[in-house]
Write a structure and sequence with these properties.
The chain is about 25% helix and about 20% strand. The chain is α/β, with parallel strands linked by helices.
């Protein structure tokens, strides 16, 4: 006779399953922009109002976020990024630093307009004092548009911010499935959804369907490795451009207005029309810092290549475009940098 007893119990019956790991908490800070824009109909991708869709509505359009991270939303501003200004930069940087100083926040995503995203990203890259991920994203089509690109960009940005591999890489930009360094990325199209590239050395990596892969590292110092901090005062720095037949009127007017620095968007390798070059040399003699960049869009400006920088007292922006060069010059001047030699060291470093 078979005396064995049968049982339907499984080995795990009666045992409490191990708890699932908590998703990382990501703060999503909204500032406005096209990603939060709305138009009268779904086919209008240019005649829209930016920054009218709130952060809760942006997040509500991406239900998949609940499986990626625990989201802490916050509306910082509701502006068209063409109107970005230094007081908002100060507010944004200080808020990000405060959030990242908390053990309750693992990373930050910033939704932003595309027009000045590269400037804001580079500013944060130099002034955020944490190794935790900070990722900016945006959209080329408003939230109301047919095939709006904002929801997927937002999902990818949160995915990158919640990924361990993003830590310590400085401020990142997630756009159209690519991950860019804030130092390298620029807007390259007025309309295409593939509008952001890093033209000189390429993207850092990519994000797709929840997978994040980095293919190169960030070499230059950033975030916790810089001496720059956000303060209450921003030095007055402007940008001028060199072109056929340019006069010295703009430079002379800026000097008279009391600017502390001028970035010139030169031709080619940062070359400057003779009349403007003389005006800029005169500006240096009056204590104004002058940085040579290029209007070309990629490449780098060699020191003493197109102008005798040592003799004129000019600084080379290297591979920074004029707009990012302005950001770095403002921060360097605010930190007490003076003179072409000291400023050139800053531009060679960052």
């Amino acid at each position: 006779m078979n005396t064995s007893t049968s049982s339907s119990a499984t080995p795990s019956e009666g045992k409490t399953p191990p708890p699932l790991p908590l998703l990382r908490r990501i703060a999503v800070l909204a500032t406005g922009g096209t990603i939060a824009g709305a138009a009268a109909d779904a086919t209008n991708t240019s005649g829209y109002q930016a920054g009218v869709v709130g952060v809760d509505q942006l997040l509500g359009a991406v239900p998949a976020l609940s499986g990626v991270a625990r989201i802490q939303p916050e509306q910082i501003a509701s502006v068209d990024s063409k109107d970005m200004a230094m007081p908002l930069w100060t507010t944004l940087a200080q808020r990000i630093n405060a959030l990242l100083a908390s053990d309750d926040i693992d990373g930050v995503v910033v939704t932003h307009g595309t027009d000045t995203l590269e400037e804001t990203a580079y500013l944060l890259h130099l002034t955020i004092k944490s190794a935790k991920p900070v990722v900016l994203t945006a959209a080329m089509r408003p939230a109301s548009a047919l095939s709006a690109d904002g929801p997927l960009n937002l999902l990818n940005a949160v995915t990158v911010a919640a990924h361990e591999a993003s830590r310590g890489r400085g401020v990142l930009v997630a756009f159209n499935n690519r991950i860019h360094s804030a130092r390298d990325v620029v807007k390259t199209s007025t309309y295409a959804v593939d509008a952001f590239h890093s033209p000189e050395i390429g993207a850092l990596g990519w994000v797709q369907d929840g997978r994040v892969e980095f293919q190169r590292s960030v070499v230059r110092p950033h975030t916790v490795a810089t001496e720059f901090v956000i303060g209450a005062k921003w030095p007055h720095v402007e940008i001028v451009a060199s072109y056929a037949g340019v006069s010295r009127i703009t430079v002379d007017a800026l000097v008279a207005a009391g600017v502390r620095g001028i970035v010139v968007a030169g031709t080619g390798n940062g070359s400057i029309h003779a009349s403007m070059q003389q005006a800029l040399a005169d500006a240096v003699s009056q204590g104004v810092a002058v940085v040579r960049s290029s209007r070309v869009g990629s490449g780098h400006v060699m020191r003493n290549g197109a102008a005798a920088d040592d003799a004129l007292g000019f600084v080379s922006a290297g591979s920074l475009n004029p707009y990012k060069a302005r950001v770095l010059l403002m921060l360097a001047l605010a930190a007490g940098g003076t003179g072409a030699v000291a400023l050139q060291k800053v531009f060679d470093t960052y």
